[in-house]
Amino acid sequence: MTTTNDEITFPGPDEIEGFWALDKMHAPRPVTPLSFDLVVRTLAEGFTKAQAEYDCPIMVSTKEINHYFYVAFHPIPDEAEIADRMTRYHSKLDTMVPGVGKTWDEEWKPEVIANNVPLKTADYSGLSDDELVAKLDELTEQMRHQWWIHGHINFVLLSSSAFCDLYDTIMKPDDPTESYQTLHGFPTTSVDASDEGRAFREQLDQFLFEYGWRHDAVYDLADVPWRENPSIPLASIANMMELDDSDDPEVVYQQKVAKREELLNAARTKLADEPETLAKFDELYEAARYSFPLTEDHAFYIDQLFISVFRRFALAVGERLVAKGVFDQPDDVFFLYRDEVVAALSDGSDQRETVAERRATMEAASRVPAPTALGNPPPPPEVPDPFMDALVYRLLGMVPPEESTDPGALKGVPGSRGIYTGTARVVRSLDEATTLEDGEVMVCEMTLPPWVPVFSVAGAIVADVGGVLSHTAIVAREFGVPAVVGTEVGTTAIKTGQTITVDGTKGFVYLDGRSATEAATTSTAW
Predict the structure, then answer these.
(1) How far is CA 139 from CA 116, 130, 146, 475, in A?
(2) pLDDT of 203 over the 90 cut
(3) For 220-269, how does the pLDDT look when each residue is reduced to its tens digit (9 = 90+)?
(4) CA nearest 418: which of 155, 158, 157, 174?
(5) Would you call 479 helix, strand, or coil by DSSP?
(6) Which of 301, 303, 306, 357 is least enclosed by beta carbons within 10 angstroms?
(7) How far is CA 30 from CA 63, 223, 489, in A?
(8) Which residues does residue 72 pair with via DSSP β-bridges, in sequence order?
(9) Residue 367 and residue 370: Cα distance in Å, rounded?
(10) Of these residues, 26, 215, 298, 471, which one is catalytic?
(11) Which tens digits make up the pLDDT trace of 298-357?
């Protein structure tokens, strides 16, 4: 066993079957037991079902280790079925993937809104215990279905990857993120929210009803959304009110629209005498242009909204169990597994000791830096899988960072171009991020859509996880903020108050504050 402290241990490489990655992007902290059953396990089922519809030979499995969420993208177990699927896989990608964005806009998004919005105000107090169990199963199946939709949405990443690869072949840009800038400057739910924010003081209640279902993590029902604790959006608005006009999100957004059109026009001009390549360029772009808005919008309606309304129901069940004397406060429900909740509704058995024990083990686990990977990594495939490249590498950034012999530098993934030297502030939650001062370098584990307002305050971003298609990288490019993602150890290697230089073009973070020019002549790490 890999021993971390007296209470928490993790299995060593040869003590666990398979290869498991910590999903630090979506669950950087321990996840409550009920959330594992209702959210995490249904995610694996929904994703795997969606991937099978493309004849993808990859499935998703999850593992709960010390309350941390570990995920594996691995081949399905039947080798004969793999061989059968591979006869159709690539042709299905060619025919199905280009339509994913349009299907979201025209079918799945309206469906998700119609299902989720009424749950904002649903009243469960009149349901009997049996009816609460039935509703629990109904919402769990709905969660599984929405993860199935999300599983389809994941494939739009192949469209953006294919387009950006073609752009790079044509334009050969010095900036590795230039091709991705052609996909920016489209409206999203998060951008729309900033307009609501302009009248925030007069419309707070309405704002929170519409947008207050956001929370700091993704997969945990126990995470408190804005509507229950509006201090986070209030702090973000206070910071934004101090910004110069040039930093206004609407001004920055229009700049990205202009930059997008400039890059696209330059590429099309270069292809004027190559009609076949130009036609392919436009065909790939039509599919790829949905990818970044989808990153924000699916997270808003599925990852954030549905999980928050599911939380409302879970708390209603918690209130019923408090009335039965099962435990003392409604949020104790999150520390029971699904079958334990159902049993408690039936027999009213005292669960205080179980809840107290699990609260204690989660607290102990939260003080431990969980290993980013467990087990032995498999050998690379003989033929790269485009889905794995887009989702696991370009989005999640699940690749080992390059080792450095230079103690004054970190190497990550170039997320957003530019070089910036400033004072670091390490933030491990959105609540902490609201204390970011104008121009500081935000050093974080990951970001999600609720973090968008703090990007307007940051001078640069350093993130532990993520690839070039991650939320952190996308939003940093939208705001024109230099960013390096996928450093893995940024939040532990960097201290608040430290002067650092972020080179978002080359993916370097210099911990001693040296300039990029100085680093080019002094660093021997690469």
Answers:
(1) 10, 14, 10, 31
(2) no
(3) 888 877 777 776 666 666 666 666 666 666 787 888 899 999 999 999 99
(4) 174
(5) helix
(6) 357
(7) 12, 11, 18
(8) 61
(9) 9
(10) 471
(11) 888 999 899 999 999 999 999 999 999 999 999 999 999 999 999 999 999 999 999 999
Contact between 27 and 218 under an 8 Å Cβ cutoff? The reply is yes
Report CA-CA distances (Å) from 72 to 24, 337, 388: 13, 22, 11
Is 10 a member of any domain? no
The angle at the Cα of 166, spanning 288 to 461, to the nearest 5 degrees, equals 65
Q: Tell me the C-alpha distance between 481 and 205, whole Å.
A: 31
Q: Is 407 inside any structural domain?
A: yes
Q: Confirm if 201 and 9 have CB atoms less than 8 A apart.
A: no
Q: At residue 102, does pLDDT exceed 60?
A: yes
Helix (H), strand (E), coil (C) string for 425-468? EEECCHHHHCCCCCCCEEEECCCCHHHHHHHCCCCEEEECCCCC
CA distances from residue 272 to 183, 222, 267, 277, 281 in whole angstroms, order as listed: 21, 55, 9, 9, 11
Q: Considering the domain boundaries, does residue 465 fall inside one?
A: yes
Rounded Cα–Cα distance for residues 57 and 200 (Å):
48
Task: Please check whether residue 51 is in contact with residue 350, taking contact to mean a CB–CB distance below 8 angstroms.
Answer: no
- Kindly state the tokens that stand for 464: 């532990």
Residues in CB range of 200: below 8 A, 6 or more apart = 207, 233, 237
User: Distance between CA atoms of 488 and 354, rounded to whole angstroms?
Assistant: 34
User: CA 136: distance to chain centroid?
Assistant: 26
Give pLDDT, residue 115. Answer: 97
- Integer Cα distance of 392 and 154 in angstroms: 10
How large is the average pLDDT for residues 479-500?
A: 94
Residue 518 sits in a domain whose CATH number is 3.50.30.10
**Is the distance from CB of 100 to CB of 387 less than 8 angstroms?**
no
Q: pLDDT > 90: what percent of the chain?
A: 67
Q: Is 354 domain-assigned?
A: no
| SS3 assignment, position 205 | helix
Kindly give the pairing relationship between strand 441-444 and strand 460-463.
Answer: parallel
Residue of 156, 163, 160, 164 whose CA lies nearest to 100 = 156
Q: In the predicted model, is pLDDT for residue 189 greater than 70?
A: no
Separation of alpha carbons 249 and 255, rounded Å = 10
Structural domain count of the chain: 1
- Residue 169: other Cβ atoms inside 10 A: 10
> Quick check: 352 and 328 in contact, CB under 8 A?
yes
- Assess whether 90 carries a catalytic annotation: no
185: left (phi over 0), alpha (psi -120 to 50) or beta: left
Contacts of residue 364, Cβ cutoff 8 Å, sequence gap at least 6: 5, 7, 8
Domain containing 448 equals 397-522
